[in-house]
Each structure stands twice: as structure tokens, then as C-alpha cells.
């Protein structure tokens, strides 16, 4: 198996983390000689905002009101982790990035730098209502319906342009997956489209 890169994108609560872990298992099973680097931006931001420093406190305030983190902070989070930890010849899975069109452009710049060819972009498409219901069941922090709806408001205006960038760009293998099914059905659909 050649070196692979996967970008998982979709609304909050769509199952990016779950499918990312299943893809990681698939890669480890089918290419045991190659390591997998799994980058989860959302998890990193949630850990970051626990700290006491100015940037952490400002970032937490944005998170608490359901806002979208500024591009510089989101980009710094994933680019710093990538530049410090990504090793030669590893498979790469990116979950939760990009969340804005310009961030997609920055992420695109890594392809040539690391020599990555034709990444797979997996758009897990779920409705806003489905995402709200799913996130309420998950109960992260002290989420209320209002908090969750606030976090989802920027999907159409900010994330969709990034998705369209990938959908139409010839350097990517874009797949749109119905995310409103069982974990197993979604994973099977992804594997089918990969082959």
C-alpha cells in the first residue's frame, strides 16, 4: 500500500473521530510496516482551552459561546503538531481540519512539502437536526441545545466553502458519505469507495 492521506470533514457530531479511528485500524491492518499519524484538531483545541494563559482563556470564551476559533489558532494547532511529529512515510489522518476556506489552502500547501499525492477527503454529510440530536446524547462539557446550535451555525458559511474547495479540486479524491447511518454501514461505504 502506498502512503495515504485522509481528511475527514463534516458537521460537529457527524462521526469524524469514530470513522477516523476505523480508518486508522484499517491502515494498520493492511500496511503494518508503516506508522499512522492521526491528527485531531478539535481534541487538541479542547485540551488547549483548559490552560490559564491569555490565548487559552480567549479561545475558551469563543468555544463557550459556540464560536469558530480564529484561523491563526486553528492553523497553528494542527501545523505545529504536524511539523513536530509527522515522520517520513507515515500515513496521515486529519480530523476536524479545515474549518474555513483559507485554512484549506494552508493545508493544501503541505501536499507538495511532504510529497503527499491525491489525499482522500471524506465528507460525512449529516443534517443540522441530526447533528444536534447526536451531540445532545454525547453531552460534552455542559452542552445545552442552544450551545450546540450556536456551534453549528457557522458550518454553512465557513466550512462548506472548504468542502467545495475539495469537491472540485483535481488534486483530491473527494467522497461524500451519508453520515446518518450506523457506524458499520458508513465504514463499509468508505472502504468500498476507497477500492
Keywords:
about 200 residues, alpha/beta, Rossmann fold, 5-stranded parallel β-sheet, about 55% helix
Written overview of the protein:
This protein is an alpha/beta fold and 195 residues long. The protein is built from nine helices and five strands; from the N terminus they run βαβαααβαβαααβα. A five-stranded parallel β-sheet has the order 2-3-1-4-5, with helices on both faces. It has a single domain (5-194), classed as P-loop containing nucleotide triphosphate hydrolases (Rossmann fold), CATH 3.40.50.300. Helices cover 56% and strands 14% of the residues. Helix 4 (71-85) runs parallel beside helix 5, helix 5 (101-114) packs parallel to helix 8 and helix 6 (128-138) crosses helix 7 (145-152). The protein has helices spanning 16-30, 41-48, 54-64, 71-85, 101-114, 128-138, 145-152, 154-168, 183-194, and strands spanning 5-10, 36-40, 91-95, 120-125, 173-178.
List the topology elements.
Elements: E1 5-10, H1 16-30, E2 36-40, H2 41-48, H3 54-64, H4 71-85, E3 91-95, H5 101-114, E4 120-125, H6 128-138, H7 145-152, H8 154-168, E5 173-178, H9 183-194
Parallel strand pairs: 1-3, 1-4, 2-3, 4-5
Helix pairs in contact: 4-5, 5-8, 6-7
